[in-house]
Amino acid sequence: MTDTKGRTRGWTSSPETKDRVLDAAAEIFGERGFTAATMADIVDKSGVSVGSIYHHFGGKAEVFLAIWSDLVEQIDGRVREAVESARADGVDNPMQLYGVSTRAYLELLWENQSRARVAAMGDTPPGFDAIRRGQARRGGDHDIALLGLGSSRREKLLRDFLLAMRAESARVVLKCRTRAELNEAIDTAVEYLECLDPAKFGLGVRRA
C-alpha cells in the first residue's frame, strides 16, 4: 500500500481484513465520491475499527491510494503470469503476446469493476491524477516492450495508438454487464489491436 508521499505501509492483519476495507471504501467512494465520503462511512461499511484503518492506511486519501495500488499490483501479477504461461506454451509472436497481456489486463479490470471505476472517476485525492498517469504509463511501457518498438517517430506514434486503443477498451469493458459481453468486447479489442501489428509496418521486433 502506498501513502501520498510514495511510502509503502505494511499490512499485519489478515488479507481478508485489508480486502474488506478496500472493497467497502471502493463502494463508498463510488456512491458518494471521494470528497463527500468519510472515514466513518468506511468504518460502518467494512466493520473494521477506525483505529485499525488509520494505523494501516493513514487516512481517507491513503485508503483511496491503496485501492489503486492494490489494483495495479493485481494487474501486474496477472499480466506477467499470463505472458509467462503463453511463452511456456510456445507463443513467441510479439503481437500475440501483447494480445495475451491485453486480455489479462481487461479481464482483471472487469473482475475488479468497483475498484477500477473508483480509480477512473474525477473526484479523487490531490495529486492522484499524476500518480495514476505515471503508473499507467509504466505498465503500458512494460507491455509495449513485448513489441520491441524503438524510439523513432513512427514507432512512438504507433505506441501511442496502441496504448490509446487499450485505454478505450478498458472503458468499454467496465460497461459490460455479463461475461458474454465481456468476452465479445475483449475479442474485438484484441482483433482491432492486431490490425496495428508493428510487423505490418516493418517496425518492432524483427521475426525470422
TrEMBL record:
Q: Which Pfam families does the entry mention?
A: TetR_N (PF00440)
Taking every annotated instance into account, which residue ranges of this chain make up the domain HTH tetR-type?
Answer: 15-75
- Report the DNA-binding ranges: 38-57
The source's domain of life comes to Bacteria
The alphabetized UniProt keywords are: DNA-binding
Q: Which Gene3D superfamilies match?
A: Tetracycline Repressor, domain 2
- Under which name does UniProt file this protein? TetR/AcrR family transcriptional regulator
